[in-house]
Amino acid sequence: MLWRHEDVLMALGGGIDIRSGHVMTDPTEFIEKGNVFAMTSLPTMPLMHGAAQWSVMGGSFTGNRIVLMDKFDAAEVWRLIEAEKVNLLMITGDAMARPLMDELNEHPQAHDLSSMFAISSTAALFSQGLKDSFLDYFPNMVITDSIGSSEGGANGISVVAKGTAIQGGPTVAPVKDAVVLDDDLKPIPAGTGEIGRLARSGNLPIGYYKDPEKTAATFVIAADGKRYVIPGDFARLEADGTITLLGRGSVCINSGGEKIFPEEVENALKSHPEVFDAVVIGVPDERFGERVVAVVQPRVGTTPSLEALQEHCRSHIAGYKVPRKLTVVDAIVRSPAGKPDYRWAKDTALADL
């Protein structure tokens, strides 16, 4: 990815000071804001991941202290928070949140975590059940869920609340220049219920390094001359101006003409007490085109049934989104950054038919 320095600075902050809401027009403002408040942060994701790069660069540019670790280990994370007096813990969704919570439940008094006042998740599904567990354990903690991309920086952020309705992704307050576009690259008005593609204008990269075809597909120019980055996520602009992330278009399931985003079904599955991890994919179906399959890693000592999971899911999502088949595995395959390997999941489910 090729960036101009000033675009990096503006994209890091989303073009807005999240503390005051002030819209920044000069890159130097972003650095000046860092002089107001400095803290110690611990990004737990690999540095090859965009979320880690953004957090490390953003913290470094504003004079914060960054604690790094060789690889993710739940026990080591909690140890480092105590030893280094970490204020902000940064994770990528359930892949890190679940083992962290399991470690806390197993050793609740092992570490002094009083220095920590914020947890930030981004780039992967942070299921509502785990959000509730963290808020139960840290009732006074500021926990946020944000969306964005390596190509465009921040798109929006939300403060986590208990009991939020299960859906594909978080509903966030958008940052400056974040929009939802229709197929003609026109911004969708708020409150229509129409699903579009999440995009951002303003300070953007020049393009992908030595990849003109991918650059042309991702960085587009609308009829009015405005340039947008469209990484591939689908979203909906709500009546109050917030944006609800639905999921990645490339893994969307089409069953009987209905679009089903795996993240919403995964969120419902992960709230079941016998499910440790889950990935949802679509497999060919003669009648409906595709049908929903859940690839599930059970919690140790449990054997969840398809019927039990279906009944649970129906209390959270529409009936046509409920899994029609269950494939049980020893472990879900994920990238080092915590993102699910949907190709592996599909191959595994097909082999189990």
TrEMBL record:
<feature type="domain" description="AMP-binding enzyme C-terminal">
    <location>
        <begin position="264"/>
        <end position="339"/>
    </location>
</feature>
<dbReference type="Pfam" id="PF00501">
    <property type="entry name" value="AMP-binding"/>
</dbReference>
<protein>
    <submittedName>
        <fullName>Unannotated protein</fullName>
    </submittedName>
</protein>
<dbReference type="InterPro" id="IPR025110">
    <property type="entry name" value="AMP-bd_C"/>
</dbReference>
<feature type="domain" description="AMP-dependent synthetase/ligase">
    <location>
        <begin position="40"/>
        <end position="200"/>
    </location>
</feature>
<dbReference type="InterPro" id="IPR045851">
    <property type="entry name" value="AMP-bd_C_sf"/>
</dbReference>
<dbReference type="Pfam" id="PF13193">
    <property type="entry name" value="AMP-binding_C"/>
</dbReference>
<dbReference type="InterPro" id="IPR000873">
    <property type="entry name" value="AMP-dep_synth/lig_dom"/>
</dbReference>
<dbReference type="GO" id="GO:0031956">
    <property type="term" value="F:medium-chain fatty acid-CoA ligase activity"/>
</dbReference>
<dbReference type="GO" id="GO:0006631">
    <property type="term" value="P:fatty acid metabolic process"/>
</dbReference>
<dbReference type="InterPro" id="IPR042099">
    <property type="entry name" value="ANL_N_sf"/>
</dbReference>
